[in-house]
Amino acid sequence: MIKRLLLTSLLYLGLTQHSKANFDFNNNCIRAYQAIFDLRLNDAKTLIQNEKKQNPNNGITILLDNYIDYFTLLASENKADYERLKNVKSTRLSALEKQDKNSPYYLFAQAEVNLQWGMLKSRFQDYMSSAMDIRRADNLLSDNAAKYPSFLPNRKSAGLIDVIFGSIPSNLKGVVAALGIKGNAGSGIRTLESLASSLPKSPYSFYKDEVVFFLCYIETDLVHNKANYGKIMGLTSSMDDTSLLKTYLQGYVSARSARNDSAIQYLLKRPKGSDYINFPVLNYHLGNAKLNRMDNDANVYLVNYLKEYKGINYIKDAYLKLAYYFYLRGDNAKYNTFLKMVKTQGSLYDEKDKQALKEANDTPPDMDLLKARLYFDGGYYPKALAELAGKDASDFKLKRDQIEFYYRLGRIYDESGRDADAIAHYQKAINAGKLSSYYYAANAALSIGNIYEKRNDKAKASSFYKQAIAMKNHEYENSIETKAKDGLRRLEY
Q1: Is 243 left (phi over 0), alpha (psi -120 to 50) or beta?
Q2: What distances in angstroms separate CA 291 from CA 253, 256, 378, 453, one per listed residue?
Q3: How confident is the model over 245-304, as pLDDT tens digits?
Q4: Which residues contact 18 (CB under 8 A, 6 or more apart)?
Q5: pLDDT attached to residue 16
Q6: Number of helices and strands in the chain (H, E)
Q7: Structural contact between residues 319 and 341, judged by C-beta atoms closer than 8 angstroms
């Protein structure tokens, strides 16, 4: 009788322990997390559902559900989906608040939900709400770090937030400072780089791919030092070859680093099948890379992107690239057809789409300058230079093209390590275009500033950064001005 009661008691205790709120990042959850970062979201959903049946009160499943929404919206950029899904944030936070308060995942999971939605809101231009969500995440992570200083996942998200807040444009720093928001991009990058080395040796090794994901974007879009290409690609090499995210990161980083042939190679070899989420932007990047190389099938990938994509970005730019594809082949009828699509389709969220609309409403580009620009974007500098060889500004009828001619040569020489030639041609672009609405002169001044900053000539660097800021009412004005102000801040001028 006593033995039976003892067994019954043990069974009851086991059941109550299993049903108690908890955070258990067990093997099943790790497999779901890894499937998410492979972009096999359907597999991840199945694994999460299995975990909910086996352990219905495991708070990690709430966090994993949020990751699913995060990557779904990153891939689709669908405004309607965003408006529908963003309402689940408060529900998930409420559910997480009922979990085990004595777990290091308790505050961390709440911070993650806030952080992920903060980043998504920024992508959909809901900036103030984005900043508030990320600040909440930062506060939660700070409290969690005080309680669990050795909990490595905390540093992953805290490092990212340090980068985000430390990279806020100069013209917005006063506003965010008033909200108590501050960060240090350099410190955040160092934290993430340290984690990339230490995580694989820890119980949290499964977080490595997420850290690599962050570092790829930071190094490519924020730091944007092409010399770091090898380092970034080395980080992605540890990711599984079946990961679609790995393919995307390698293709994106290669394209942004002017390794066009490598970008095409990576994007063509991407894993395919019904297991993977639909990720149309891969075709957008592949179409652009092939256009830069003048491949005959560039249009195929741009068309596929437009067919599959239901989001808000790069639609006008994709139509413009299709127009240029046919323009380069002398098919003016299709060129004009796609120019009309630039004017009538898509949105103006992204700078690329704004620029595409401006170009569509402008006089058609000079053929040689267009080829030089595309070759340059792909990193084919000798080919770009060959397109302009033997020409002079007087060979171009339009003032716009004369300014671009000087600017384009400056860019080619700059990337080819010919600083003196670059500065000379940038200066000509400034002289010819400082009063125009085109971005060439302002960006030329910014570029000369960068050259002199690398030489540690602070006086000359600051002079050209100030010139870039002084030019007004041109394309990319906010972006160029922000970079110039950041340059002055680095120089302490």
Answers
A1: beta
A2: 17, 14, 9, 33
A3: 999 999 999 999 999 999 999 999 999 999 999 999 999 999 999 999 999 999 999 999
A4: 55
A5: 39
A6: 27, 0
A7: yes
* Calpha distance 149→133 (Å, rounded): 23
DSSP, collapsed to helix, strand or coil, labels residue 458 as helix
C-alpha closest to that of 363 among 341, 383, 335: 335
Q: How many CA atoms lie within 13 A of 277 on its CB side?
A: 26
User: Which residues, including other chains, have CB under 8 Å from residue 43's CB and lie 6 or more apart?
Assistant: 32, 35, 275
Over the stretch 140-197, which tens digit does the pLDDT of each residue have?
Answer: 999 999 999 999 999 999 999 999 988 876 656 665 666 677 788 899 999 999 999 9
Q: What token pair was written down for 317?
A: 């730019």
**Which tokens sit at 370?**
């267009």
C-alpha to C-alpha distances, 326 to 264, 368, 401, 404, 423, nearest whole angstrom: 20, 15, 20, 22, 34
Encoded amino acid at 190, one letter: R
60-84 burial by CB neighbour count: b if 16+ within 10 A, else e? bbbbbbbbbbbbbbbbbbbeeebee
As beta bridge partners, residue 58 has: 22
State the average pLDDT for the chain: 92
H runs (alpha helix) in 20-85: 27-37, 41-54, 60-76, 79-85
Residue 227 pLDDT: 82
State what percent of residues in the chain have pLDDT above 90.
Answer: 84
d(CA 16, CA 14): 6
Rounded distance, CA 400 to CA 370, Å? 13
**Which DSSP helix (H) or strand (E) runs through 138?**
helix 127-147
Q: Whole-angstrom Cα distance, residue 46 to residue 54?
A: 13
Calpha distance 29→455 (Å, rounded): 51
Q: What is the mean pLDDT of residues 200-226?
A: 92
Which two structure tokens, joined as six digits, stand for 408? Answer: 């384009």
Token code pair at residue 455: 């030489």
- Residues 147, 106: Cα–Cα separation, whole Å: 11
Residue 18 scores a pLDDT above 50: no
Cβ atoms 294, 327 nearer than 8 A = no
Q: Are 67 and 34 in contact (CB under 8 A)?
A: no
The angle subtended at Cα 186 by Cα 181 and Cα 192, nearest 5°, is 95
Tokens 């529908």 found at: 84
